[in-house]
Amino acid sequence: MLHNPNKCRHGASLDHGEAHERDHQLWSRRDFLSASGLLGAGSLLLGGLPLRAFQPTPLMAALNGGDNNRILVLIRLDGGNDGLNTVIERGNSFYYNIRPNIGIQEGNMWALSNEYGMPLSTQPLQPMWENGMMKVLFNVGYPQPNYSHFRSYDIVASASDSDVVVNTGWMGRFLDNEYAAFLEAPPTVPPALQIGVQADLSFRSDQANMALAVSSPQEFYQIAQTGQLYDVAHLGSSPRELELAFVRQTANSAFRYAESIKSAYGKGKNQVDYPASNYLAEQLAIVARLIKGNLGTRVYMVSIGGFDTHSEQLDYHQALLGRLASAVKTFFDDISFGNSGLEQQVLGMTFSEFGRTIYENASHGTDHGWGTPMMLFGGNTGNGFVGQYQDLGSPDPYADPVFSVDFRSVYSTVLQDWLGNSPDLVNYVVGGHPVIPGLVPAVQPPSGDNGKNVLLGHNPHAHVPGSVEIKYAMQQNGPVRLQILDRAGHPLRTLVSEYKQAGSYTFTLNPAELFLSPGIYQYRLQAGGRVFQREIVL
Question: Span 312-320, mean pLDDT?
Fold first, then answer.
């Protein structure tokens, strides 16, 4: 890509490194209304509602005991990460023959084992490896790879085959199942949060984008500190600015996550110093603060760009890996501060759209290739290697070694073992790719994510003959809809339709008052984006 060395604005030039990456993130947003994940579920003004501390009842305390509190942090290495210079097979002469200028020398790496090492720029990760908080998956890819950044990323985000176009993402399908009432009774906590990526396909479902997408840490700070996404205070009085102010005010009023984000951000604190001039570290600092503030979001995505290293790769790529390593290490130091134990509840996972060619090119870089390593951090995973390292002994001069781990098996394992979902759901989301035994510690018992709102059941009213008490509980504020359905599932009466505070509730159902004949019915609770349903005899 050509650039003008005479540009004076810091961040405008590729030569400005991290500042250019930040500048690209800030200015690539085509239009602020395109953040469909923010506005796709209708308008709900939360700013005027009182926020109170939740006082748990014995019932709610019992519900809390069964919750699956594991968190997944996806770390996107945008551009296609070079695997052979990320994890190096030590003493492999074939490696140095095919990479005479960009190979990492033995003196410039630290040892993962007798066989493998990583560049010294990633040395912040060494304590995590030694303490059983890091695992490496070799040569991750998929059959018949596509070498277009855009198409290959769509494949990775959607978990599709390379010759099939799927318009929903793997996380979007999972969250759509967990939040089946996302549009009818939306949650006040974002099911997923992504920073630095705009409306990522990974989180797209049939009904909406299931993640809150903010384009930069600066945009997030605007939300966390003011409860508003778009600034309206510094616009002038010209017709264009007045129109823009109106649109921004409308967007702000529709932003339903303001209260929960402000509350979590205020309660959580960063307790270590994050590395300066590190865009990934800025994002992870936000994630750490929200986790420690008990936001309740269980899936996060952050990103670091620049991995499309076609030329002069050696020093530049090592600098990128250094930012990744220092950001990840600092993040886990932060969430584990004071022996909190949070590092065992949080799993970090790197991924990239593809790897790089095993041969260096004439520009001392690498081109789009097949497999690339994935790394897992935290989560009490232990350390070790999964998969087969690329065979460099007799390489095809025109093609890269075949991948050894299908990325969709990693997704299956994370969904089933880490997040605790059933094999049937995992098969629906990812499509039958097997789980990798022992990759991450499995949830016991499997519980899924369906615990924020619970339909407890019903019983005859103790003092009102012919009436029934329906009991339900909520662990977060939000809109609630409780309905009576016929046996076929068609809604007949709406019993509750209002915004409620977190807590335990009882609704007294009198069939005669609702003109319901004796018989078998169903009742359905929609709250927090979820649906709960049971049969009842009246």
Answer: 97
pLDDT tens digits, 265-308: 999 999 999 999 999 999 999 999 999 999 999 999 999 999 99
3-class DSSP assignment, residue 519: coil
Residue 20 CA to residue 10 CA, distance in Å, equals 8
Return the pLDDT at 483: 94
- Tell me which H or E stretch contains 229: none
Q: Which residue has the higher pLDDT, 401 or 15?
A: 401
pTM of the predicted structure, to 2 decimals: 0.79
CB distance 302 to 73 below 8 Å? yes
What is the predicted pLDDT for the residue at 68?
60
Q: What share of the chain is helix, strand, coil (3-state, %, to 5)?
A: 30, 20, 45
Ordered by where they begin, the domains of the chain are 60-430 (3.40.720), 453-537 (2.60.40.10)
The Cα–Cα gap between 458 and 506 comes to 9
Distance CA 475, CA 360 (A): 54
Average pLDDT over residues 101-126: 97
